[in-house]
Design the sequence.
């Protein structure tokens, strides 16, 4: 069997909290994007690069996106600082076939909201909640290697109603100590690309060091990998068969007409 080329992954984050909050810097000293990239780099079928907000074009130049099969996006405090043209460039690449894995507060990012076409709003609370993510689709490729649930000792709470379109597939439902529930893992097809939203990952908790969270993201990358790239084209198509004469055309045959 032919060997597939490595999945080209770009991990994007704002890289702002880590520079302003000592607690976040202690958990993610090189940035959340580098923590995520590190465990992805242990996978033989992936090549991984990182990008962040304060780089030119936010690190997402046309060349970078051309060389990306799956884009992982983490954002929180600076959604509005992402240039519209860069967000649209990334959204277009998803429609062409690039995969998107949107993590935690990326639910409010320009790229995710643009692909969903909805508010993507929710309720939240940063406190002492435990999160239990129930695996409700254990046969799905993204949930492979995960048991009945993932338990995270402390996480930010997200609660329904979640302003997303009905998912194509719902994989995880979260329960929190305060009693709330949330659709925490969901997939959609958008154009030729696949989108996976995965909820856990608030910056003040060590969530991306959790082995099961890492496993879901690894599986999500493999599921979302680009398999085609088909650009948006709107050509005038020539007929495959001869067409009958158009009665409204000046070039129509005159026989039979008065």
Sequence:
């Amino acid at each position: 069997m032919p060997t597939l080329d490595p999945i080209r992954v770009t991990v994007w984050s704002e890289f702002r909290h880590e520079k302003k909050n000592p607690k976040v810097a202690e958990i993610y000293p090189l940035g959340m994007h580098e923590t995520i990239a590190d465990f992805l780099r242990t996978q033989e079928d992936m090549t991984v690069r990182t990008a962040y907000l304060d780089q030119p074009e936010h690190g997402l130049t046309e060349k970078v996106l051309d060389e990306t099969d799956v884009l992982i996006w983490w954002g929180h405090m600076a959604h509005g600082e992402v240039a519209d043209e860069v967000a649209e460039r990334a959204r277009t690449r998803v429609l062409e076939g690039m995969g998107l894995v949107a993590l935690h507060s990326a639910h409010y990012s320009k790229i995710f909201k643009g692909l969903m076409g909805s508010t993507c709003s929710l309720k939240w609370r940063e406190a002492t909640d435990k999160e239990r993510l129930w695996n409700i689709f254990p046969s799905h490729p993204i949930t492979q290697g995960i048991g009945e649930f993932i338990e995270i000792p402390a996480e930010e709470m997200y609660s329904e109603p979640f302003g997303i379109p009905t998912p194509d597939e719902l994989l995880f439902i979260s329960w929190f100590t305060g009693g709330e529930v949330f659709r925490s893992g969901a997939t959609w097809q958008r154009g030729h690309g696949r989108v996976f939203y995965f909820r856990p990952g608030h910056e003040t908790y060590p969530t991306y060091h959790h082995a099961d969270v890492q496993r879901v993201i690894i599986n999500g990358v493999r599921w979302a990998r680009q398999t085609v790239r088909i650009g948006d084209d709107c050509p005038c198509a020539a007929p495959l068969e001869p067409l009958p004469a158009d009665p409204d055309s000046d070039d129509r045959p005159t026989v039979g007409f008065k």
